[in-house]
Recover the amino acids of this structure.
């Protein structure tokens, strides 16, 4: 810890940290739109296409002027983008093939130029190869100022035109229909992606810059489904990745900054992949487990209700009856392990009772009431699906739990269909009738129809 604090006192480290933070934030913000527009690979092509521009700018100027190198990279990146679009438009080559073609040709040409500069240069080319893998230690105060200005402009434009960029990302036809300059906005966004790419070349490098665009954005995607939250979170992830990668690079002395920044971003991505609240694997597994447990719970209660319903009819409401586990599992698909776990849970809630001697279970009065609602809901849904064309469009299929609280006229018609088909759940009615129990606390309208 003391080593890190001492390291942060170094002005050069402070400049580098500031540069990588701003780079990460800008990359995360712009990368969110690139990801959602499925243009992540295009960012990779832009990064590789920028290398010839850097080399040509150096050959023309003769010095490693950050501003001129970025201008050359931007021009070369835009030319590469135009070439990709031209190939797609004027040939039968698909987008991924066009991207691979332009990427390899431009990058190969850049390597040829870089080799020429290193072999025949005058010595001013020292460190030019750091643009391949990135070396943030080479960033100086002037470089940070340039990165800061470009990053601020990119973030500012995103903030000002957020609604427009959101619209052309999700519904370009509607955006064009309401009069937005879609082509101009697409061109602007493409230029912004190029801008985010070129300012990261010195820190992250040509090869890994695409990962700097994609990783923070996809990491944020696991935590939110709202674009505004995603953009902010992606910027934070990018900034944190820049800090961690830069500190590791400085501590390791000699390791390239770019790979370490991407490694830090990847660690955050893996964490989000597992624990992300929206799409993470662990929350998804927990949700699936809860749904499975709920289905098993309803299956057990429904099976017991149907068995009890038959017993109550035979005994004229006197006995609910108790039943072995195997008999309950035969009515619906329930595994033995799930059966044992859910029965234990239902017993704690007072919905089931168990005869320990011969391992038979039965519904309690409270359990009979809950099972009645479940069976009624399922049978009403069966009627609704059988005669769906008779009813107006609704969202019941998405949330069948709301079926009992639907429009009264529709519920009445569904109950009438249940009665016509002899599918009314009679168990609870028979049990209450025999014991003169009132309707308080139950669906009185439904039970009234049973009478």
């Amino acid at each position: 810890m003391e080593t890190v604090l001492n390291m942060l006192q170094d002005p050069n480290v402070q400049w580098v940290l500031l540069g990588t933070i701003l780079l990460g934030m800008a990359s995360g913000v712009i990368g969110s739109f690139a990801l959602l527009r499925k243009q992540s690979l295009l960012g990779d092509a832009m990064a590789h296409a920028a290398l010839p521009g850097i080399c040509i700018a150096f050959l023309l100027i003769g010095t490693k002027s950050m501003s001129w190198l970025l201008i050359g990279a931007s021009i070369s990146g835009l030319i590469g983008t135009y070439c990709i679009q031209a190939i797609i438009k004027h040939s039968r080559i698909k987008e991924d093939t066009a991207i691979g073609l332009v990427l390899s040709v431009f990058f190969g040409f850049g390597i040829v130029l870089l080799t020429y500069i290193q072999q025949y240069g005058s010595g001013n080319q020292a460190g030019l190869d750091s643009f391949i893998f990135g070396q943030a230690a080479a960033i100086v105060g002037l470089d940070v100022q340039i990165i800061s200005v470009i990053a601020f402009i990119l973030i500012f434009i995103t903030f000002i035109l957020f609604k427009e960029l959101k619209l052309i990302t999700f519904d370009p036809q509607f955006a064009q229909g309401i009069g937005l300059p879609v082509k101009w906005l697409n061109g602007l966004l493409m230029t912004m992606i190029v801008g985010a790419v070129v300012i990261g070349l010195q820190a992250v490098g040509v090869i890994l810059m695409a990962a700097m665009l994609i990783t923070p954005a996809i990491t944020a995607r696991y935590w939110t489904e709202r674009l505004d939250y995603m953009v902010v979170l992606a910027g934070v992830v990018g900034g944190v990745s820049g800090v961690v990668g830069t500190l590791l690079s400085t501590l390791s002395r000699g390791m390239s900054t770019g790979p370490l920044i991407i490694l830090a971003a990847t660690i955050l991505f893996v964490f989000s992949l597992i624990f992300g609240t929206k799409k993470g694997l662990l929350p998804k597994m927990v949700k699936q487990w809860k749904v499975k447990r709920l289905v098993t719970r309803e299956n057990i209660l429904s099976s017991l209700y149907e068995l009890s319903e038959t017993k109550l009819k035979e005994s004229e409401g006197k006995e609910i009856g108790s039943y072995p586990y195997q008999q309950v599992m035969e009515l619906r698909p329930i595994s033995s392990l799930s059966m044992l776990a859910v029965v234990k849970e239902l017993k704690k809630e007072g919905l089931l009772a168990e005869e320990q001697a011969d391992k038979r279970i039965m519904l309690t009065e409270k359990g009979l009431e809950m099972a009645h609602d479940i069976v009624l809901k399922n049978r009403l849904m069966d009627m609704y699906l059988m005669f769906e064309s008779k009813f107006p469009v609704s969202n019941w299929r998405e949330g069948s739990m709301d079926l009992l609280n639907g429009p009264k006229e529709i519920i009445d018609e569904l109950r009438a269909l249940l009665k016509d088909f002899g599918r009314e759940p009679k168990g609870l009615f028979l049990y209450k009738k025999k014991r003169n129990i009132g309707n308080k606390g139950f669906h009185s309208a439904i039970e009234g129809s049973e009478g």
Notes: The CA atoms of residues 14 and 29 lie 23 Å apart.
